[in-house]
Amino acid sequence: MRDMRVGPTGFHDVRETNLGVVLRAVRTLAPCSRAAVAAATGLNKTTVSSLVADLIARSLLRETGESAERRVGRPGVMLALDDRTIAAIGVEVNVDYLSVVAVDLLERDLVTRHIPFDARSAGPDACAHRIVSAVSEVAAAPALRRRSVIGLSVAVPGLVDSPNGVVTRAPNLAWLGTPLRSRIEELMDRAGAAPVPVLVDNDANLGAVAEYRGGHLAHTADLVYITGEVGIGAGVLMNGELMRGSAGFAGEIGHVRMVEDGPECGCGRRGCLEALAGIEAILRAALPDRFPGGALSRADLADLVETAVERAAAEDTVAVEALDTAGAWLGRGAAMLVNLVNPGAVVLGGYFVPLAPWLLPACRAAVRELAFAPGAGGCAVETSELGLTAAARGGAVAMVDAMESGRLPLPAPPKDGGAAAADEGAS
User: Fold this and answer.
1) Distance separating alpha carbons of residues 365 and 330, to the nearest angstrom
2) CA–CA separation, 330 vs 325, rounded Å?
3) Is the distance from CB of 139 to CB of 86 less than 8 angstroms?
4) What is the pLDDT of residues 23-74, one digit of tens each?
5) What is the percentage of the chain residues whose pLDDT exceeds 70?
6) Angle at Cα 107 formed by Cα 105 and Cα 110, nearest 5°?
7) 20 to 30 A Cα–Cα from 318, which one of 26, 30, 347, 408?
8) CA quadruple 153, 104, 408, 191: dihedral positive or negative?
9) What is d(CA 160, CA 252) in angstroms, rounded to the nearest whole number?
């Protein structure tokens, strides 16, 4: 499937849309009766009964028994999402790792994998091969046995032409004009895998989706997620929807110039926020003895972050001051976003999370100082609880949302009419 946008509306499209409406209503109300779904959606009861029957046949809804509520007439049969039948997979590509997350219809994790991988040295083609092999391994896991995979989402740190699946520019990966989706589809077809829709998007965007759908600040409608990897990007949600901009490239806060003639950034310019407060800049300043020749092996980032945490916890002056300075720069960048879009929360992710005890005080102080609105317009500055899998998880839940919104096809009813296997434990 090349284009996940909704096409012209016909009878079939209206029914598919209404199926998604009912599915979302049950997600919100479950356990609930058909009458409750009709009341919530405005659809008449006959239509709701037909749609529910269709969704049960597709193993997306199930009946859970009769309502205990006392009422005149027959008791209503309660409905819930059938979480045994489908899976959605998200992958995050970063400089030093791949993350893979599979979720069920309730957006609960089925499989979570973190795979050390030097994506920059490997190059885009080898990376596409590794993505496909990682997805194949996850699809074969016991937790996905007999489940139908509805889609695959790939998060990349850089500018992404998402409708066409092309990574326009990813400086930290050294990718330029990479047709990632078509390459993944080609490799999956060559491997004999069942065809599934593939989405490629920016990692910060999908991190923001993950926070909105399942983070500790879930359903904060106006939210900014700032990545804490080698690069710095921002996923911006306004009223629960991603703010993409005219070409889909919104949120590149890491490449806003903060100082003239500052340190060189991976994008080739100088003085960008990423060059001042990205994880490489933090590690060079906090652990100067670890880079006597100036070289940083990105394969060792996780170990170096752990060392920085240990030194800061031991009150090493160099490490603590480096983190305090980086936190202040992050706060300056976040304050720009607070002034522009007035979010309810700014969430720091990635490697910023373990460093947060030393980054956050200066970051919050800078936001309070530089935000124009009193009290920073009510914006909270917090850290993510989703770890290094946020973008992968966001990609997976974005596929579930796309299915419910009619941008992905609903799975067809099973030929045998039976339900899929019962829930298996997450691995």
Assistant:
1) 10
2) 9
3) no
4) 999 999 999 999 999 999 999 999 999 999 999 999 999 999 765 555 555 5
5) 89
6) 90
7) 347
8) positive
9) 11
